[in-house]
Design a protein that fits this description.
single chain, about 110 residues, alpha+beta, Alpha-Beta Plaits, 4-stranded antiparallel sheet, 3 helices, 4 strands, about 30% helix, about 35% strand, elongated
Length: about 110
């Protein structure tokens, strides 16, 4: 596998509990090898006005082949009207870590 065979999928939620629950469900389903959950401050346009909120970001490490399934899973289990779901290719990384991502995700 090349490094382009891997991706990080990002989403946000409005609470730490929701973020941890979603992260655990995704990892349990083997759609991602791991998920990092952390607090962020978001500034965004919504329905014609600028909003500022604390959110919880989740970065999922996965294989590119699983991005569509992971994105669908996030959309189905998310409570936002329009959740952020962004996939970024991994263009570099340690071979050992990337092999671990492969081993811990669906075949």
């Amino acid at each position: 596998m090349t490094n382009s065979d891997y991706a990080v999928v990002i989403t946000t939620t409005d609470s730490e509990d929701k973020a941890r629950t979603l992260a655990g469900a995704v990892v349990n389903e083997k759609l991602a090898a791991c998920a990092q959950v952390y607090s962020i401050s978001s500034v965004y346009q919504w329905q014609g006005k600028v909003e500022e909120e604390q959110e919880w970001r989740i970065d999922f490490k996965t294989r590119s082949a699983l991005v569509d399934g992971l994105s669908s899973f996030i959309a189905e289990h998310h409570d936002y009207d329009e959740p952020e779901i962004i996939a970024l290719p991994i263009t570099g990384g340690s071979p050992g870590y990337l092999s671990w991502v492969s081993a811990e995700t669906r075949s």
